Amino acid sequence: MKTEAQSARIQPVIKLVRRTDPTLVILIVLLSVAVGLAFLKGGGQLAWLGVVQAGRLLETVWLRLPLGFALGGLIQVLVPRAVIARWLGPASGVKGILIGSYTGIILSGAPYVMLPVVASLYLAGAGAGPIIALLTGQALLALQNLIVWQIPFLGVGLPLSKYIVCLFIVPLVGLAGSAVFKLLGRLPDLEAKRDLSASGAGQKEGADKT
Amino acid sequence: MDTALLILLVLLALAIIAAFWKGRWTLVWAGLKQTGRTLKAMWFRILLGMALGGFIQVLVPSASIAEWLGPASGLKGILIGSYVGLFLSGGPYVILPVVAAIYKAGAGAGPVIALLAGGLLSVQGLITWYIPFLGVRLSLAKYVVCLFVPPLVGLAGGAVFGLLNLS
Fold this sequence. Notes:
The structure holds two protein chains of two kinds.
Chain A: H1 2-19, H2 22-61, H3 64-78, H4 81-88, H5 93-103, H6 111-123, H7 128-141, H8 143-154, H9 157-183, H10 191-198, H11 200-209
Helix pairs in contact in A: 3-8, 5-7, 5-9, 7-9, 8-9, 10-11
Chain B: H1 3-59, H2 62-69, H3 74-84, H4 92-104, H5 109-117, H6 123-146, H7 149-164
Helix pairs in contact in B: 1-4, 3-5, 3-7, 4-5, 5-7
């Protein structure tokens, strides 16, 4: 009886925890730890200094950020994901790796939006090299990331230097990734992908779908 | 007006013109609505990320940052910057304010560029997103190769930064 009453009491708490965004919780915990450490180390004065530093950062980016967001929103409506899927397709070899690498420039979105698209390309018959190049290209070359986040926070010089180098490194990652993928042949692949590779017809069918 | 702001304004103007040309006001409005949705989802996280960046700046003395990641830290700084990425998690709204705070506190271009590229190595991203969607073989093949990428990007990026002289 007591246990039922207790579980009824904690039900709202469980519901609240389930609804809460884990990233937000992690951020709040990290910030609380930082504020606590500042108090321990230098009392209210150091904590206030932390707030002042945060204010300075906000002063630098407050106008740049909404501009970046507006640009990101427009890029999302201008470049449909279906078009990106058509460009990449099941191409293989260096051509596929180059297409994969530089498709990353216009591919954007959170992992839960992007990874289902990439997984569907992989299952449709795209090679490991182009997919690895696409994932790395999206992480290092996405224009939206450069414009919305890196330039507003770090200015032009640093993000641009990184971007120029990454233009050359991403295809190399695709090439090397393809070789490592072959070496890791004993590891389990996606179930559906393994079925497709088992029969040549399956691979062709996958290619035809794209 | 600073260069970063000017570039953003020009790019935004071009994007608005392209959207208007492709789909008139309907597409421009769709872009703005998308902007509103992103801002609504992110504004609180951005503020928290900035507050965290501010506290890291006052908690970790500039001298320590300069020693670990400063322009004189050389290859050691680039390797530290690269492999801090293993523990990075959260969106750019968390990572960028922290990286900007470290840069302002005296870190060198190479280590900061390695730190930015080190996001590729997030163990949390591998476990939470890549393996569930793409399986073990493909995800690990990418991860193994990427272990070597941030130090290379840091070394070459630091050199390009010196050549561009855009700081």
